Amino acid sequence: MQSSKTLSLVRTITTFTSKCTSIVSPTTCLRLDSYCDTDPQLSTYSQNRTVDGLIKSGNLNSAHHLFDEMPLRDVVTYNLLISGHGKYGQAKRALLLYNEMVSYGIKESASTFSSVLSICTDAGFCIEGTQVHCRVVSLGFGSNLFIGSSLVGLYMRMRLDVNALKLFDELPERNLPTWNLMLRGFCELGRSDELLRLYAKMKLDGVDPNELSFCYLFNGCSNAMFVNEGKQLHCHVIKLGWMDTGVFLANALVDFYSACGSLTDATKLFEAIPVSDVISWNSVVLVYAKHGLVFDALELFSRMQLWGKRPAIRSLVGFLNLSSRTSDISFGKQIHCCVLKMGFDHASVHVQSALTDMYGKCNEIESSVAVFKTVPERSLECCNSLMTSLLHCGVIEDVVETFGFMVDEGLGFDEVALSSTLKALSMSDFTNLDSCRSLHCCAVKSGFEYDVAVSCSLIDAYSRCGHVELSQKVFEKLHSPNEISFTSIINGYARNGMGREGLDMLGAMIQKGLTPDKVTFLCVLNGCNHSGMVKEGQMVFNSMKSVYGIDPDQRHYSCMVDLLGRAGLLKEAEELLQQTPGKGDCAMWSSLLRSCMVHGNEILGRRVAKSLMDLEPNDFAVYLQVSNFYADLGEYERSMQIREIASARKMTRESGHSLIKLNSSHQN
Where does the record place its PPR repeats (predicted)? Predict the structure, then answer.
C-alpha cells in the first residue's frame, strides 16, 4: 500500500516537471540559472554585516583582515572600519582609511563625516578636522544636523568658541544634544559667564534642559564660584522635579556647594542622597578639609572606604593641601603613606605636585626635592610646586635655575612660574634691571603681561631695582587693578621713599570702591615713615580701626613708633609702644633707642636700653646698640662692660654686605 502511494507521487512530480519544461523557454532557463550565481552587492552586504559583528565583539584585527580580502568595498564598509578604529583608539589608522576611501572615489555619507569629525575631535587632530570641514562644505553636507553638531564639537575642542557658536547659530535645527554639546564646550573652556548666557538663550528657544545640562551648568558655576547663580539654578532644578530622579544631578549639587565652600548646604544635600547612590564622597571630604575640619574629613574618608568607595585623587590632594596650610608635617606624612598604599604616588601628577608643595610648605625642602625627583615625567604643575617650595624656604637661586630647566626641557611656563621667578629675583642679592626686563619680555610674548600675579611681581621687582617709574607703567597697563595690584604699587612707592604718591594711590583705591586690608595700610604707613609724613601717618593709623574696623598688629605699631621716633616725638612713641599687644618686640624697642640717641633723650634712652636687654638677653646686636648708646653718653666704662658680657657669652653677629651694579658688573 505504501509503495503504491510513493510510485503515484513520483509520477505526479515527473508529469509536472515535463509540463514546466515545455512552457519555459531556454532563455528563461538561463535567467533562472543565473539567479543562483553570487551577486557581488549581496556578497558585500553580507561581509559588511560580518565586519560589523567582529568590531562589536572587539575583534578589530579580524575585521580588518576580512576587509583586506573583500573584492568589493562600499561606503558602509569604510564607515564600519573608520568608526571601529576610532572606537578602539586608533585615530591615525582611521584617518588613513578615510584617505584611502576618498582616493578610491567612494563618496562619503553623513555617517562618514560624523565619525571622522568625532575622531579628529577626540584625538586633537585640529588641522585634519578643518580639512574635513572643507570637504563637508564642498559636498553639500553643511546643513546636516549631525555633521553640524560634530563640527561644533571640533571647534570647541580647538578652543575656537566664536567659530563654534557661529556654526551652532547656522544649524537649521538645534535639538537638546546639540545644546548640551555647546554647554559642555563652554564648561570645559572655563567660560562660565558665556555658559549661563547660552542657558538663557536655550530657555528662550523653548528647549527644556535635562540632567546632563544641569550637570554642565553646576560645573561651570563651581569653577567660577558663581554662588548666587548656582542657587538660582538649584531652584530651577527643584521646580522641574529633577531632584527626586537625578542621582548625578544631586551629586553635582554637592560638588557645587563644596567647591563654593558652602559647608552647610553641601552636607545637607550629601546626607539626603542614599548611601548606595553617593558618588560625591570625595567632594564633601574636600570641603571639610578646606574648612580645617580634620576629624570630620577623616571620619568621612573612613566611611567612604567601608562602603567600598575608592578615594579619589582630590581627597588626598585636599588632605595634603590642609597639611601645607597648617604646616602639619606629621599629618602630611601619614597622608603620604596612604598615597603609597593606594598606588597614587606615580599615577597622578596632582598628587605628586601636592606632595612636593606639602613638604616645601612644612620647610622640609630636601623631602620636597626628593619627591620631585621621583616623578616619572616632569610636568609644569610639579615644577611650579617645586618653585613655590624653594621660594618659601628661601632657596632663591634654585628657583631661577628651575625656571631655566623648564624652558630648556620644553615644558614651557605659566603665570605661576613667571610670578615665582620674579619674586625670587626680587629677593635675590643679584637682582638687576636686565633680569627683570628679560622676564617681562617673556610675560609679554607668552600673553601673561596682564595677569594680576605676574603684574604684581613685576611691580615689586622693578621697585626693588629702584625703577619705580617702570612699576607705575606696569600698573597703568592693568585693565582692572584689584586690591593686590594697588597694594603692590603702594609698596613700590614706599620702598623708594615716595610716601605722598602712595597716599594718593590709597585714595584712588578707595575711590574705585576697593577696600584696603592690613597689608595695604602697612605699605602706606611705611611710605609715610620713609617720607617723614607724621600727621598723615597718624591719620591713616587711626582710620584703620575707626573707619575700616581693622585692628593694627605689631607691624603697624612698629612702623608708627619708628615714624614718631624719627620725628622726635619720643614721648608719644613710648606711649604707643606701651599700647602694643605684648608690649612690643625687639625691633620696636631698638627703633625707639635709636631715636633717643639721635635726639639726645638720655632719660628715656636708659629705660629703653634696660627694657631692650631684658627682652633679648642673647642678641649680640642688642648689646652692641646699648653699648654704643652708653658710649655716646660718655660712659665708656659701662659701654665696655656690656661688650665684655657679650664676648663672655660668645655672642656673634652675621656680617652684612651690600651690592651695587656698575657697568654691567657687580661690585661689593
Answer: 74-108, 175-209, 277-311, 482-516
What span, in angstroms and rounded, lies between the C-alpha atoms of 77 and 399? 57
For the residues of 521-547, what is the DSSP string, one character each? Answer: HHHHHHHHHHHT-HHHHHHHHHHHHHT
Distance CA 211, CA 46 (A): 40
Q: What is the pLDDT of residue 385?
A: 95
Cα four-point dihedral sign 314, 320, 325, 331: positive
Instruction: Please name which of 537, 528, 461, 520 lies closest in space to residue 486, comparing C-alpha atoms.
Output: 520
Q: Is the sign of the CA dihedral 494, 498, 499, 503 positive or negative?
A: negative
CB-based contacts of 581-584 (< 8 A; 24+ apart in sequence): 581/553, 581/554, 581/557, 582/554, 584/554, 584/557, 584/558
Is residue 661 helix, strand or coil?
A: strand
Helix residue ranges per DSSP H, 532-617? 534-546, 554-566, 570-579, 586-599, 602-615
Give phi and psi for 250, each to the nearest 5.
-60, -40
Cα distances from 664 to residues 433, 440, 660, in angstroms, run 10, 19, 10
pLDDT value at 222 more than 70:
yes
Q: Which residues pair with 372 in a beta bridge?
A: none
Write down the residue that cell numbers 622676564 correspond to: 439
Task: Write the pLDDT tens digit of every residue in 179-210.
Answer: 999 999 999 988 899 999 999 999 999 999 99
pLDDT digits (tens, 9 = 90+) for 411-424: 889 999 999 999 99
> How far is the C-alpha of 402 from the C-alpha of 383, rounded, in Å?
7
Given this model, what pLDDT does residue 43 score? Answer: 82
> How far apart are the C-alpha atoms of 419 and 481, rounded to whole Å?
16
Check if the beta carbon of residue 345 is closer than 8 Å to that of residue 374: yes
pTM: 0.67
Give the count of beta carbons closer than 10 Å to the beta carbon of residue 95: 21
Sign of the alpha-carbon torsion through 616, 618, 624, 629:
positive
For residues 47, 53, 58, 62, the Cα torsion angle rounded to the nearest 10 degrees is -20
End-to-end CA distance of the chain: 133
CA–CA distances in Å: residue 115 to residues 81, 119, 148, 181:
10, 6, 12, 16
